[in-house]
Amino acid sequence: MVAVRSARGASAAPVDRAFRGLSPHSPDTQMLVGAVLHVDGRPPELGILRDHIAARLPALPALTTYLPLGATRWTAPCYPDLAVHVAERAVPGEQENLESVVAELTRTELPDDAPPWRLWLLHGHAPRQYALLYLAHHYLQDAGGLLHTVESLFGPEIPAEASSAVYHGFPRRLPTVSDYGRCLMMSVRNVRQARKWSVPHCRTTPDRTLHWSRVPTDALGSIAATFGGTRNDVYIAAIAQSLAHWLDTMSDIPAPPDLAFAAPANIRRPEEMNRPGNRTALTHIRLPATPLDPAQRMVSTIRATMPLKSPRVRAALRAGVDHVPMWLARATVNTIAGRRRGPVGASFITLRHRLAFRGSPVTAVYPVMCAPAGTPLAVLSFAYEGYTTVCFRADTGFPGLDRIHHTWRETIRAWNESLLRS
């Protein structure tokens, strides 16, 4: 249990403490993130699943760690109670019911005095299939930590240099003064431009919808190759285009504002792949809020995300996060939670390794995203085994956002069809 002992007493980063201190306005606005693993095969007995988790815990110090409210250092209990942390739930009847059960379980209140995560075995919704739902509080894990957990629990032994959880592009040379300057400007802009969702007829509420969309990853790749961007560019561009069409239905907006996006950048080093807490830098990008043709939309998105593609800028972001004062961490967190109508959150993650449980393959991985108070829409995407699955969490006070997942999928389809015609 060496890895577990290494987490005990370590300092928590300011952003982890800021996330820990957030008070949710409702069960729907809790800072819970996770994944639904769809598995082919007969559901295992719950005891077998618990034994499997127990055997993998030495490689997962985050699962034996928590941060007491107001504390500055992580606390590691001797052993998590797997009778509580690992449970099962029968899903009545049909595949469609799985989504509603997952939505219900995301409202689970995790304890203050124990590691804030849960794993559910879900079964009964389809013959010879089951699902594993993993949820954790965002202060305990970001998307990188989440990936390390599912790969460690249900993947082969993966060395740090091959992990999906870390950023592999850090340069050998130190960032330049210019790189640090760009990052400082980005941090200041993040805080100053937090409130930009002034949409008539909409109001923030404590309730959230949960929906997924799923497309072949090659559909994103073909668009990216055409315009010289990345799949992440296509993913964000299609969200922006979908939101622009949604805003276009609001006929009494005289001049639609730009769309504000909070785009987390992975800054987790390989040696930190199993550490608790967040290793991401929150950056903001702004995109046109009017519908554009595919070329215009892609060009504007590629231009906006260009700094995030620079390894030196990523290294400068990491240095900034390592030394950020607590007041700035709280201000940055408040740009995505707690303020009225904050930016849209959008993250894109790739799982590089095939997962399975006791020989039964994981055929799909569906992300679970949180949308804290003040966030009208939060989106998280997982690319796995040839498909990209996107989770949309929308505030019910914004009429029409509960269908934005359909618009996003249709946008990807239409852009691919236009490429084929041209």
TrEMBL record:
It catalyses: an acyl-CoA + a 1,2-diacyl-sn-glycerol = a triacyl-sn-glycerol + CoA. It is an enzyme of class 2 (transferase). It comes from Nocardia fusca. Belongs to the long-chain O-acyltransferase family. This is diacylglycerol O-acyltransferase. Pathway: Glycerolipid metabolism; triacylglycerol biosynthesis; Lipid metabolism. Its EC number is 2.3.1.20. Residues 15-151 form the O-acyltransferase WSD1-like N-terminal domain. The keyword Cytoplasm does not apply.
